[in-house]
Amino acid sequence: MANIFLHYALDLWAAREYPAIPFERYADDVILHCKSEQQAHVVLDAIIERLAQVGLELNPDKTRIVYCKDGNRGGSHEHERFDFLGYTFRPRLARSRSGGFFVSFCPAVADEAVKEIGRTIKCWRLHLRSGLTLSDLARAINPIVRGWINYYGRFYRSRLISLLRRIDDYLVRWAMKKYKRLRGHPPRARRMPASVHRREPALFAHWQAVQPRAG
Questions:
Q1: pLDDT at position 213, please?
Q2: I need a surface site. Which of 10, 15, 44, 164 has the fewest CB within 10 A?
Q3: How large is the angle between the packed helices 186-199 and 157-178, nearest 10 degrees?
Q4: Distance CA 63, CA 137 (A)
Q5: b/e map of 119-154 (b: 16 or more CB within 10 Å)?
Q6: Burial class (CB in 10 A: 0-12, 13-18, 19+), 47
Q7: Could you tell me if 186 and 176 are in contact, meaning their C-beta atoms sit under 8 angstroms apart?
Q8: Cα four-point dihedral sign 171, 173, 174, 175
Q9: What is the largest CA-CA distance in the chain?
Q10: Left, alpha or beta for 208 (phi > 0: left; psi -120 to 50: alpha)?
């Protein structure tokens, strides 16, 4: 019901009053793309007035004007980043098709999402499941990991890759608990994921996006 209410209270109003300003809304999170700070202040004041007319108000802790700084916009502003749908949008170094580097205002998995994924990986306690095989572990976590890759891996995948490498760190610890010959030999155990990856590259969902580290 809240979503339907906002469709009439905000979406249709914004499209009618500011047709040249694109916007996205998911539930009660909204982004409007203004061309200048001056325009942004005008639109913000109008939204505050519009919501008051329908008995609503903006969250002051979440509402802000953000400067989308990149290689073509070299100014500065108090706010130069924002989170939306699990992504953090901010200036990042990117590579062009010609191989050069430039600053782009683009998304990557948000800090809060990184923390949540890290907590989930830790809670799996893979290193303590020495009674299971690698295939068992893969079947248990692949649906979740594949969902992370499909969603958070669409933009700036390197940030997600560095996080998914933690899975292999737990697999190394799992191997040292499961196999006596690997106990007390971390360098030898670290070669295990790379060896299995060469034989079965599709065993773990994250191996299709992350090259396991060799010892």
A1: 55
A2: 15
A3: 110
A4: 42
A5: eebeeeebbebeeeebeebbeebeeebbebbeebbe
A6: buried
A7: yes
A8: positive
A9: 72
A10: alpha
